[in-house]
Amino acid sequence: MHLRRFAFAGLIGTAAICAASSAFANDTLTVAGLGGNLQKDLSATLWQPAAAGAGVSISEETQDGIAAVRVQVQSGSPTWDVVHLGADECAVGGKEGLFEPLDYNVVKSDGFDKKAYGKDWIATNTYSVVLAWRTDAYKDKHPTSWKDFWDVKAFPGRRALSAYPQEMMEITLLGAGVAKDALYPLDTKLALERLKEIKPNISVWWSSGAQSAQILKDKEVDMMAIWGSRVASVIKDGAPVEFTYQDGLLGYGCMAILKGSKNVAAAQKFIAGVVSPEIQARIPEMMPYYGPSNSLAFKVGKFSPEVLAKSNMSPENVAKQTPIDTNWWRDNSELVREDYSLLMSN
Questions:
Q1: Looking at domain 129-248+324-345, which of 3.20.20.70, 3.40.190.10, 3.40.50.720, 3.90.110.10 is its CATH number?
Q2: Which CATH number applies to 15-126+251-322?
Q3: What tens digit of pLDDT does each residue of 277-336 get?
Q4: DSSP state at residue 99
């Protein structure tokens, strides 16, 4: 699960949603997120203005992933209406029939990449996996792509990758020269061979966003694969670190309506607001190094060059990256995780 943090600003662009919201004025939706700063910031940035625009109120709870959603749905009377997950888990939940279909006459998918929604889920925000390095380790000549990450002669130093295969398999293949438009279906055999080659130079297989930021900040590694939001915090703290969106991977946070919810119509309207261009346009300024899942946000919002340079979904930065195919991971995750774990342990 790869999701991050956001901030509060005033409500904008909800007039069109308000006009059709009277039927839901007395509804309270229970929205389950992943807790912590992530949920707090998502609520302030997206959920609360979307709820106001739809004429509903929201009650928030926390959950820890798709297993908790299964328990809710299997009970036959879920207490949650809407859940926020990583898109890989939304895809799994959709395959298992855990969600209500989205009404795309209400929830508009205009401005969305086809990998950013399914029949019963839609992306609410994006994040990026990027190549980062310490400038005190690579002064005049620094890495610029995943090919350089694998070039240990030209770029010696300690490296770090995630302990989870999603995203790491993709960057491995990009480093092997696989074209972005030919990335899927993933050549797992080639990826595992290339990972075996680089393994002696991997000092840390990190297992959390906090750990990834700390090892870079503390100079335990010289270059690494890391989420853009996490490297941003390292740079903000003054560490001599840079990163590039070149060959980055775009991932998604998503929302879905639990099967059996008693508030499906209100939930549809709420999600429609969350993914609308007007509310999505709040993200670039309030979620540095994140981006809107709806590209139309850049048409309704006006952003400074500085904001656009940071946003992973700005037209310039998004062109450098590849969206993660959540459906591929939905169908192949279990086997890949097993092979990846064996590679790390042997």
A1: 3.40.190.10
A2: 3.40.190.10
A3: 999 999 999 887 889 999 999 999 999 999 999 999 999 999 999 999 999 999 999 999
A4: B
